[in-house]
């Protein structure tokens, strides 16, 4: 079957909530609220009303709004100050409204944050706020300085290897912790990785899933540029190793200051991966339950020419994180023991 024909079929399946979850565009600054199906049918207030509602309900619960610091597909994020303890927090207010506090507590993101905390590399949930009147739910979280995308955006000179290594080590630690708790993230990307000075924490658990849930996972596909081959080529037969692929893409991006596979659509995404890594053996595709696509055999250009100054241990780890076959791909636990991190451990 030709890949583009299969894609048309997949996109027509209404159950794929996030097939249209737009990745960062070529111009990432153009990212705005994206056209995704929400999990309920409540009418969504427009931006102005939502901002006002969020501010009012936060004030009632003892939080002063300082400024807007982020926006994602599903939420607006504000810097707030608690009137109780005087501390600053990030407040993530969901665009989706809900009906009860119980529903708020049952949100996948809330459950995951509770289960994963406390951990040095996981964003901590401080308080969950539900406003009955408006159905608004806000997550009061620890405040970070910026996300990794903001950190590397506009930089001209590469970061010192010690900085790259420090951040990647912490990212692997966060994934090792998540995976050992039986959860995988499914949306590891620079915008969801937050930093404060030398510390790094993984955030945005809205897409995570239990490692015990049986595939096919049809309701969600992570942001395109960071999407592993098994997510692109199968009908939902992927698992926790997809996070390691995404982390590998982030690793490359921190090192080179530009994305590794900036596909403009799913077809182009696969082509970009094959341009660098080459087309996989048929055996990998068969084993992974990939639909039988007839990709013209291609030898990849390799990653090393894209990062000519990359230290050999970093390149070795990068290749292991970007193994096409998820069974061959390194786990977070093994990655932490890689020689690249010898001085970090
Ligand atoms: N704790 C925090 N501290 C500082 N900034 C934050 C924090 N949490 C989120 N942000 C900022 O807000 C942005 C959006 O947050 P988040 O990714 O959690 O929202 P989302 O709606 O789930 O996004 P997505 O589009 O990835 O699904 C982040 O990229 C980040 O820049
Ligand atoms: Mg996000």
Distance N to C terminus: 47 Å
In the CATH hierarchy, what is the superfamily of the largest domain?
Answer: Transferase(Phosphotransferase) domain 1
Q: Which percent bin holds the helix content?
A: 25-40%
Q: What order do the helices and strands follow?
A: HHEEEHHEEEHHEEEEHHHHHH
What portion of residues belong to β-strands? 15-25%
Name the bound molecules: adenosine-5'-triphosphate, magnesium ion
* Overall SS class: alpha+beta
Q: What spatial form do the alpha-carbon principal axes imply?
A: globular
Mean pLDDT: 87
Low-confidence stretches: 10-20, 22-27, 29-43
Radius of gyration (CA) equals 20 Å
CATH architecture of the largest domain: Orthogonal Bundle
GO molecular function: ATP binding; protein serine/threonine kinase activity
Family: Belongs to the protein kinase superfamily.
Biased composition (Polar residues): 37-50
Pfam families: Pkinase
Overview of this protein structure:
This is MAPK/MAK/MRK overlapping kinase. 34% of the residues lie in helices and 15% in strands. It is built from twelve helices and ten strands. The strands form three sheets. A five-stranded antiparallel β-sheet has the order 1-2-3-5-4, sandwiched between helices. α6 runs antiparallel to α8 (241-256).
């Amino acid at each position: 079957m030709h890949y583009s024909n299969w894609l048309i079929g997949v996109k027509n399946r209404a159950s794929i909530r996030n097939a249209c979850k737009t990745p960062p565009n070529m111009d990432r600054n153009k990212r705005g609220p994206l056209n995704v199906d929400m999990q309920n049918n409540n009418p969504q207030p427009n931006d102005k009303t939502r901002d006002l509602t969020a501010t009012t309900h936060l004030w009632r619960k003892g939080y002063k709004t300082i400024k807007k610091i982020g926006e994602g597909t599903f939420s607006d994020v504000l810097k707030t100050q608690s009137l109780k303890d005087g501390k600053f927090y990030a407040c993530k207010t969901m665009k989706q409204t809900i009906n009860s506090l119980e529903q708020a507590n049952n949100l996948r993101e809330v459950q995951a944050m509770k289960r994963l905390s406390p951990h040095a590399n996981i964003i901590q949930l401080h308080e969950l706020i539900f406003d009955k009147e408006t159905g608004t739910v806000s997550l009061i979280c620890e405040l970070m300085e910026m996300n990794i995308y903001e950190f590397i955006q506009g930089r001209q000179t590469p970061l010192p290897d010690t900085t790259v290594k420090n951040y990647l080590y912490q990212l692997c630690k966060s994934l090792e912790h998540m995976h050992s708790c039986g959860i995988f993230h499914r949306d590891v990307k620079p915008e969801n990785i937050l930093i404060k000075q030398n510390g790094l924490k993984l955030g945005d658990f809205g897409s995570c899933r239990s490692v015990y849930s049986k595939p096919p996972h049809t309701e969600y596909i992570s942001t395109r540029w960071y999407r592993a081959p098994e997510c692109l080529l199968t009908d939902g037969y992927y698992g926790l190793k997809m996070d390691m692929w995404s982390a590998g893409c982030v690793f490359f991006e921190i090192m080179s200051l530009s994305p590794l596979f900036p596909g403009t659509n799913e077809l182009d995404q696969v082509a970009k991966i094959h341009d660098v890594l080459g087309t996989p053996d048929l055996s990998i595709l068969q084993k992974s339950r990939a639909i039988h696509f007839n990709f013209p055999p291609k030898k990849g250009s390799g990653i090393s020419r894209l990062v000519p100054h990359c230290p050999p241990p970093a390149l070795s780890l990068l290749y292991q994180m970007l193994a096409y076959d998820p069974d061959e791909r390194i786990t977070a636990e093994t990655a932490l023991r890689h020689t690249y991190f010898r001085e970090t451990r």
